[in-house]
Design brief:
This is Glycoside hydrolase 35 catalytic domain-containing protein. Belongs to the glycosyl hydrolase 35 family. Keywords: Signal. The chain is of the alpha+beta class and 116 residues long. It is 20% helix and 16% strand. The strands form two sheets. The protein has a three-stranded mixed β-sheet, covered by helices on one side. A three-stranded antiparallel β-sheet has the order 2-3-4, with no helix packed on it.
Amino acid sequence: MHWIGVCCFWSLFVFVFSDAHNSTNNRTFIVDYEKNEFLKDGEVFRYVSGDLHYFRIPKSYWKDRIQKIKAAGLNAITTYVEWSLHEPFPGTYNFEGMADLEYSSNCSKTKACTYS
């Protein structure tokens, strides 16, 4: 198995709701260990996360699935990289089409998920 391997459930936490529209620089994120909670900008924040396996969904449906995740109230997505899709043979790499990992990540972070 390649040293990167299947990345053993490589967790990629991507905030679904983009904060790009908020231009203030006073944003904070604190872990309150005494109360066992997260504080985002001084308010209690709870991660509500779900899985999105980009390699099991046709690329043309990625935007739809991310919108449905948002509509369901989730604010984070976890995924793992199916490395055998990206390196089908030793030394041969594929990051196009269904294997476009960068596009998948950018599609989740921004609202500019367009198809060419």
